[in-house]
Design a protein that fits this description.
The complex is a heterodimer of chains A (398) and B (95).
Chain A: E1 9-13, H1 15-26, E2 30-33, H2 40-51, E3 58-61, H3 65-78, E4 82-86, H4 88-93, H5 95-103, E5 109-114, H6 128-132, E6 139-142, H7 146-161, E7 169-174, E8 183-187, H8 190-197, H9 224-253, E9 260-263, E10 270-274, H10 278-291, E11 296-301, E12 303-305, H11 309-316, E13 321-326, H12 337-345, E14 354-360, H13 369-385, E15 392-395
Parallel strand pairs in A: 2-3, 2-4, 4-5, 5-7, 6-7, 10-11, 10-13, 13-14, 14-15
Antiparallel strand pairs in A: 1-8, 6-12, 9-11
Helix pairs in contact in A: 1-2, 1-7, 3-5, 7-9, 10-13, 11-12
Chain B: E1 33-37, H1 47-51, E2 57-60, E3 63-67, H2 77-81, E4 87-91
Antiparallel strand pairs in B: 1-4, 2-3
The chains are: A alpha/beta (398), B alpha+beta (95).
The complex binds iron/sulfur cluster (2 copies).
Residues 37, 42-48, 64, 82, 84, 86-87 of chain B line the site of one iron/sulfur cluster.
């Protein structure tokens, strides 16, 4: 791998600081947002950049997230590079407009600081907010740490704005665990970011285009399906656009961002699948179990939409048992969202691994290496006996 | 029947790229009842023209001349608002 081509500046940043810093360097035309824990600090920091004249952004402090996302849609349709951020219930309040942003093909970029959806009301991390929007037509990337929160926002923005894609993108990281934890983050110089994202080239712009046109008219049974088919096509181009954006980013930074990442998985009999900050804990558990002679590994899933089914089949196909950990419950479903889709991705693998599911960490419940080791041990038992006792288990619930 | 376009041939994201083309849309086909003017009773107050949501009351030189049946949806607002009972809604039996 080639080294970075640009000198980075190391800064101590929380996840929220890192996302705000990336936004500052992008210098978007419009940001419309509403504060909600644990995203609040991110927007507060960005608002300071606006106040201090460090960005040219028009900051719209909307009266709700429904309005914030609506303002983003209006701004993006007008031809503005548009960004925002939210969490949990605020994210839920954006719901109908998320679909509108995607179907109008507006590449808005949003940070989602993952937090449990009420109720009971809770401010801590799980993935119930963003997982619920997996069918909304947005690109979805899960960051593990503040570095990825910074990097993936830039990678996602460039892929979203690619004219073969033209879909909005959200980048997630874990509320409090990452949003409020300070780490050393390697940042690019402002000019390098500006050059990487380039000048914004909207596919259409109500304020700039000379010829008048209508955005968002009624679309019935005669054409709605065709417009959805166009949207599907955009998503089908997203893997290539993400790969191109990530490759260019790797040239600048030396950091490589594929749709997934494996750790000690090549010869592993049991591979855990995890998203977000838990991937770090899982690596620790893998090392501990490897010390004891167990052939275990990890697959960290970074890109949830577009779902990298072929890459997952290649990464997991050689295992005897796959343990899918998800920080979300899908009530009434056969397992959690990642479980269902990973299991489906493995259907045509010649020697299909057995797949089990653990739901963990709801409402911010701490999930340490001990709990993940428990999950691995059950995976090892399934691998050696070939017998699944329960498809879905709950880690750390009393 | 008109052959409809496929997904590769239509504007992105449901945009309408031509201004003012709603005129080509025959909303008159929605109609069950159609307004018919009694020119004798009409005093040309033009309330019907003001109230018509589809600009389908045809006026020339401040006089009501009839209705644009290509676009009149037959809602009956004009008849309801007319102070002279000069508009009758009759079952539209064409087609
Ligand atoms: S409202 Fe009645 S009276 Fe007035 S212009 Fe229309 S038809 Fe004539
Ligand atoms: S029936 Fe309705 S649409 Fe037709 S002319 Fe009267 S007000 Fe206009």
């Amino acid at each position: 791998m080639a080294g970075p081509s640009v000198q980075s500046l190391k800064l101590p940043l929380t996840g929220n600081d890192a996302a705000a810093y990336a936004m500052k360097q992008v210098n978007p035309d419009v940001v419309a947002a509403y504060p909600i824990t644990p995203q609040t600090e991110l927007m507060q920091t960005f608002a300071e950049y606006v106040h201090d004249g460090e960005v040219d952004t028009e900051l719209i402090t909307a009266e709700s997230e429904h309005s914030a996302m609506s303002a983003c849609v209006g701004a993006a349709a007008a031809g503005a590079r548009t960004m925002t951020a939210t969490s949990a219930n605020g994210f839920a309040l954006m719901w109908e407009v998320l679909y509108i942003a995607a179907s109008l093909r507006l590449p808005i970029t949003m940070t989602v600081v993952n937090r449990a959806l009420s109720g009971p009301i809770n401010i801590h991390c799980d993935h119930s907010d963003s997982m619920g929007a997996r069918d909304a037509g947005w690109i979805q990337l899960y960051a593990e740490n503040p570095q990825e929160a910074y990097d993936l926002l830039l990678v996602a923005l460039k892929a979203a704005e690619n004219h073969d894609v033209l879909l909005p993108a959200m980048v997630m990281y874990d509320g409090f665990i990452i949003s409020h934890t300070m780490e050393v983050v390697e940042t690019l110089p402002d000019e390098a970011v500006r050059e990487f994202v380039g000048p914004y080239k909207p596919a259409y712009a109500m304020l700039l285009d000379k010829k008048p046109f209508t955005v968002g008219p009624l679309d019935f049974h005669d054409y709605y399906f065709e417009h959805k088919r166009q949207e599907i096509e955009g998503m089908l181009h997203a893997p290539a656009a993400l790969a191109a954006s990530a490759a260019e980013f790797e040239g600048l930074t030396g950091r490589s961002y594929g749709p997934l990442e494996t750790y000690r998985a090549d010869d592993a009999e049991v591979i855990m699948v995890a998203l977000g900050s838990t991937a770090g804990t899982a690596r620790y558990a893998v090392d501990a179990l490897r010390e004891q002679g167990h052939a275990v590994g990890l697959m960290k899933l970074r890109t949830f939409r577009p779902f990298p089914a072929a890459e997952i089949a290649a990464a997991l196909g050689g295992a005897k048992c796959v343990v899918v950990c998800d920080r979300v419950v899908s009530f009434g479903a056969f397992g959690s969202p990642t479980f269902a889709e990973v299991r489906s991705a493995l259907y045509e693998v010649p020697e299909r691994p057995l797949v089990i599911n653990y739901i963990y960490g709801l409402g911010g419940r701490d999930t340490g290496p001990d709990l993940l080791e428990q999950a691995f041990e059950e995976g090892l038992r399934v691998a050696s006996t070939g017998e699944i006792k329960e498809h879905v288990g709950y880690l750390g619930v009393r | 029947m008109e052959k409809k376009k496929g997904w590769k041939e239509i504007p992105l994201g449901g945009l309408i790229t031509e201004a003012g083309n709603a005129e080509e849309y025959d909303t008159g086909s929605w109609r069950t009842f159609k307004p018919v003017l009694d020119a004798e009773a009409c005093n040309n107050c033009l309330l019907c023209w003001i109230f018509c949501p589809d600009t389908s009351v045809l006026v020339e030189n401040e006089e009501v001349k009839g209705f644009d049946y290509k676009h009149c949806k037959g809602c009956g607002i004009c008849a309801a608002e007319c102070p002279k009972n000069a508009i009758e809604m009759v079952l539209d039996e064409e087609e």
